[in-house]
Design a protein that fits this description.
Blueprint lengths: L1 H11 L6 H8 L6 H16 L2 E5 L1 E3 L29 H13 L4 E4 L9 H14 L4 E4 L2 H11 L3 H11 L3 E2 L9 H7 L6 H13 L4 E7 L5 H18 L2 E8 L6 H4 L9 H14 L10 H13 L5 E4 L6 H4 L10 H10 L3 E4 L8
Parallel strand pairs: 1-8, 1-9, 2-3, 3-4, 4-5, 6-7
Bound molecules: iron/sulfur cluster.
Iron/sulfur cluster (SF4) binds next to loops.
Length: about 350
C-alpha cells in the first residue's frame, strides 16, 4: 500500500483530499485502517492539540409526538400511541432548575414535530429556558424544525431563525442532516426537508451569526459514495461560512427502528466503519477544528478509539437522553466526567471542560 502511504503523507503536508480519494479511504478493509487513523490522529494533534474536551450539557425533549415518521427513528409517537408526553412551561423550568444544580452550561432541546407547534411554540420554550437560566447556552432546533415552524406560521426560514435568536437561541443543532443525498433521504426520511433545503437553512443560520454543528448519520442503507458526497457538502459550506463548530458522526442505532425491522437497513455500522468515519472525517474536513465522537452512539470503548483516530471531543454529559434509547441503545443517559477522564488519561491525554463554542473552561 505504498500508494496509501504517499496519499496520507500528502494530506499531512496540506493536500486537500478529493472525493475519489476519500472514497478510496472509506473502502480500506484491512490493517491499513490503522495508518489512516494514525494520520488523522497526527492532524488532530497539530490542529487542536492534545486536550480531550467535553461539555456539561443536558437534553430537554419537549415532546415525542411527531407528524413525521422517519424510518430510522425509534423515539417519535403518533396520536393514540402510549407514552406520549408534552412538557409545559412549569415542567421545562423544573428541568432547567435541575440543570443549574448540575452545573450544566448547555441545554439542548430537540423534539418531535408536534402537530400543534408553530414558530412561537419554539420561541416560547427558549424564552422559558432563558428566563430560568440566563447563563445557560441554548443549543436547540435544527433545519427540519426551522422549516416546520416556518410552514406552520407562514414565515420565511430566515424570519424563524431571527425570532429564535431573539428568544435566546445561541446555537443550532446540525441534526436532520442524516445523509445529504436525496435518494437516501427518500428511503429513510421521506417527509424530511430535501438536502438542498437543509443546506440553505444551515447557511442562513451561519449568516445570522448562529453557529451550528455538522452531523452525519451513517450505517443504515447509504453507500460509501453517499458518505463522501455528504462530507463534501459539509466542507463546501464550511469554506463559505466557517459557521460549523464541529463535525459529529452519528452511528445508526438500529434495534427498534422501522427501517431495520422492515429489512431496509443494515444492523448499524461496524467498528471499522465507526473508526474510518472519524478518521476520514478528520482528513477530509480540513476546515473543521473539532471532531466529536459520540459515546451515546458508539459506547465509551469505541469512542476512546475514535479519540486516537482523529477526534478531540467526547460530546457532553447529556443527563437525559431519549432519542438513541428509543432506537434501542442502552446506557445513554449520563456519562460522568470522571469516566471521561479515565478514558482520556488512558491514552495519555488530558480532559478539559469546554463551552458549547469550544472555549476551554
Ligand atoms: S427523526 Fe425527528 S422528525 Fe423524524 S420521526 Fe423522529 S422525531 Fe420526527
Amino acid at each position: 500500500m505504498e500508494h496509501l502511504t504517499i496519499l496520507l503523507d500528502d494530506v499531512k503536508n496540506g493536500h486537500r483530499l478529493s472525493e475519489d480519494e476519500a472514497l478510496e479511504l472509506f473502502r480500506v478493509q484491512n490493517r491499513h485502517i490503522w495508518e489512516i487513523a494514525a494520520a488523522a490522529d497526527e492532524i488532530r494533534e497539530e490542529r487542536v492539540g492534545n486536550a480531550v474536551t467535553y461539555v456539561r450539557n443536558q437534553n430537554i425533549n419537549v415532546t415525542n409526538l411527531c407528524v413525521n415518521a422517519c424510518g430510522f427513528c425509534g423515539f417519535s409517537k403518533k396520536p393514540g400511541d402510549e407514552g406520549i408526553y408534552f412538557h409545559d412551561k412549569t415542567e421545562i423550568q423544573k428541568k432547567v432548575a435541575l440543570a443549574k444544580e448540575r452545573r450544566v452550561t448547555e441545554i439542548c432541546t430537540v423534539s418531535g414535530l408536534h402537530p400543534d407547534f408553530t414558530a412561537q411554540s419554539y420561541t416560547d420554550v427558549y424564552r422559558w429556558i432563558h428566563e430560568a437560566a440566563p447563563d445557560i447556552h441554548i443549543h436547540a432546533s435544527n433545519p427540519m424544525e426551522v422549516a416546520y415552524a416556518a410552514k406552520k406560521s407562514g414565515m420565511s426560514t430566515v424570519e424563524v431563525l431571527e425570532a429564535m435568536k431573539e428568544a435566546g437561541l445561541n446555537s443550532m443543532c446540525g441534526t436532520a442532516a442524516e445523509i445529504l443525498v436525496d435518494s437516501v433521504r427518500n428511503k429513510i426520511c421521506r417527509q424530511k426537508i430535501p438536502a438542498k433545503e437543509w443546506v440553505r437553512i444551515i447557511t442562513e443560520a451561519h449568516g445570522l451569526g448562529i453557529p451550528t454543528t455538522a452531523t452525519i448519520m451513517y450505517g443504515h442503507c447509504e453507500t460509501d459514495q453517499d458518505r463522501v458526497k455528504h462530507l463534501a457538502i459539509l466542507r463546501d459550506i464550511q469554506d463559505e461560512t466557517s459557521g460549523f463548530t464541529e463535525f459529529v458522526p452519528l452511528s445508526f442505532i438500529h434495534m427498534n427502528t422501522p427501517l431495520y425491522k422492515a429489512g431496509e437497513a443494515r444492523a448499524g455500522a461496524t467498528g471499522r466503519e465507526d473508526l474510518l468515519m472519524v478518521a476520514v472525517g478528520r482528513l477530509f474536513l480540513d476546515n473543521f477544528r473539532n471532531i466529536q465522537v459520540s459515546w451515546v452512539k458508539e459506547g465509551i470503548k469505541m469512542a476512546q478509539l475514535g479519540l486516537i483516530a482523529g477526534a478531540n471531543d467526547l460530546g457532553g454529559t447529556v443527563y437525559e437522553e431519549s432519542i438513541s434509547k428509543g432506537a434501542g441503545a442502552t446506557n445513554t443517559d449520563y456519562l460522568d466526567p470522571a469516566e471521561m477522564q479515565r478514558v482520556a488519561e488512558d491514552i495519555g491525554r488530558t480532559l478539559r471542560r469546554r463551552t458549547t463554542l469550544y472555549e476551554l473552561a
